[in-house]
Amino acid sequence: MLGRIGILVLSLFLIASRSAHEYHASVTNMQYNPKEHSFEISVRMFTDDLEKALTKENGGQRVVFSAANTTKNDPILEKYVRRHFAVLTPQKQRKSFDYIGHETEADAQWIYLELPYAEAFRGGQMQQSVLTDLFDDQVNLVTISYNGQKKTFLFKKNQTVQDISF
Fold first, then answer.
1. Is pLDDT of 83 > 80?
2. Cβ atoms of residues 24 and 139 within 8 Å
3. Which pTM value belongs to this model?
4. Cα–Cα distance list, 53 to 3, 12, 19, 56, 134 (Å)
C-alpha cells in the first residue's frame, strides 16, 4: 500500500513542479554506500516552499535562492535541515551527519547530506519534518536503500517521527 502512496506522492510532486504547485511534498533518498560506510542523502523540496520556511527561520528576513547567491543560504539551510531531519539509533542516539551543500534544479532545491554509518544498520527512528510547520498538507516521502533492500516511509504533519527497520 505504501508503494502506491509513494508513487502517488511522487507523481503529484512531478505534476506540481511544472507550474505553481497546489501540493506540498518533499522527497528524500537515502542510499547506503558500503565502500564509504555511509548513507548518501538527497532531499528535494520546492524552492518557494523552502524560501518561506527559511525566511521564517531567519526571523522574517527574506531568503531567496538565485544563481547570484548559490552558497549564501547554506548556513541557514543547514541549520533548518538539522532541526527537521534526524536519524536515531535503536538506542535513541542521534546520528550526526555532514551537510554537503545544495543545488537548484528548475523550481526545486536539492539538499545533500552524508550520514556516516560504520556499524550494521538495524533501524531505529527517523524524523523528517521539513515544511510541516508551514503546511498542514505537507507530505515527506523517504526511501531508504540498504544492502539491496529498499523501504519507503511517509511522514506527515502529525507523524514526523517514525520507527524504521530492515
1. yes
2. yes
3. 0.85
4. 28, 21, 20, 5, 7
